[in-house]
Amino acid sequence: MSGRMPSSGRWSRRLAVWRPSVTSGQKGPHRRRKPAPRKGQALSRLPVYEGDFFADSVIADPLPAYRQMRDTGPIVWLPENNVWAAVAYQPCLEILRKPKLFLSGRGLSLNDEVNNILIGSTLNSDAERHRRQRSITATAIMPDALTSLAPAIERAADDVADAVCAAGRFDAVAEFASILPLSIVVDLVGLPAHGKARMLEWAAATFNLFEGFNERSRESFQGLRELRDFLNKFGKPEKMQHGGLARRIFDEAPGKGVPPEEAAQMLRDYIAPSLDTTISTAAYLAWHFADSPDQWQLVREDKSLIGNAVEEVVRLTTPIRAFSRYVAEDVEMHGVSMKQGQRVLVVYASANRDETVFPDADRFDVTRKTHRHLGFGQGPHMCMGMHLARLELNALIRAMAERVASWHLDGVPQTAMNNTIRAFSYLPMRVERA
Question: Residue 421 gets which letter from DSSP?
Fold first, then answer.
């Protein structure tokens, strides 16, 4: 292996597709209007949600919008976003389990120009390529492989719990939820120092670009360009930390028939999704236990509920609101006709609030049998980092349950405005020691 990354030119060409123009003042790509769902059919005859799925108001308070969409139909048309949205549990599950009909390999963004940049990672791949890549990226973070890491995670969780208990008052995002992923995952991935420092920024930029058109997407373009530059410069095995997950990609790639160019692109699988989702869920963990003190007492009294509490927090948080799929051929599903070439949003966050599957779905219940939730996805693209996330979240609840009698909101939370990730940017909390 030469160590040289052959894809640098391809990345540059792809990014040039919608580089902001200095002379024209263009800030980013324009939304391309697609035809109505069915030729000759009035939108009034379709299940339609007229709002913008990515509006600030929906990101800040999404639950009313999800309920309105589910009340409209299991799959609805979003004219503002030119996309179908599967919002009930059953169609979401069906789409995720039909990867040949609903493709990931055409990219997950609603903007095809952005997809030209993102295609190449495990997340944005299908069929044999996806299986080949996932056999490299997922194996190292399966339960058996994580056994040796568990003691370090437990110790780190104890340190976090000791620190916030000593402080009494703290920001549950910066001082509670972020500490464990940043201390464990960043070193586990093993990027060079500059990459470690920027992982959160690059992840947020990537997730914003899954919408692809609005101001947040345009502002995130610079982050994607910086990630491209980083991969061009450091996407080589000799630049990666020995024993890290990133280096392992290059070590195993030749035996799996993965060329260096493809291996370098796969680094994005560890950069984008490995931090934000766990941090988001851990912060919501604090919020839910403050909002439902009776559930915290149940966990403290019965530690066997911790694992189920983690799943319930993941269900209610659903840190990734939605990903899109490309419709590979005309299909009739749940009363609507989707045409080849259209896209459909799989709205995990709405599916996880579907009361036909989860009775009293908005209630936090640590005893709920919630294993069917879609917070980690489903099908061949099910979250490969879910086992590590569960370890971290279990450890945090266990450590806090041993020390904390109660959680309390200590101010006004602030929402992180991201097109894809549901998260707090600031969550003031106070705890009473046991």
Answer: B
- pLDDT for 1 equals 36
The C-alpha angle 334, 62, 408, rounded to 5 degrees, equals 135
Structure tokens at 84: 């179908």
CB-neighbour burial class of residue 90 (10 A; exposed 0-12, middle 13-18, buried 19+): middle
pLDDT digits (tens, 9 = 90+) for 317-352: 999 999 999 999 999 999 999 999 999 999 999 999
First-to-last C-alpha distance (Å) of the chain = 56
**Kind plus residue range of the DSSP H or E element containing 85:** strand 83-86
How far CA 185 is from CA of 3, 156, 180, 388, in Å, comes to 25, 12, 8, 9
pTM of the model: 0.90
Could you tell me which residues come within 8 angstroms of residue 403 by beta carbon, excluding any fewer than 6 positions away?
A: 161, 162, 165, 433, 434
Domains observed in the chain:
8-433 (1.10.630.10)
For the chain, the C-alpha Rg in angstroms (whole number) is: 21
403 vs 329: CA distance, rounded Å: 55
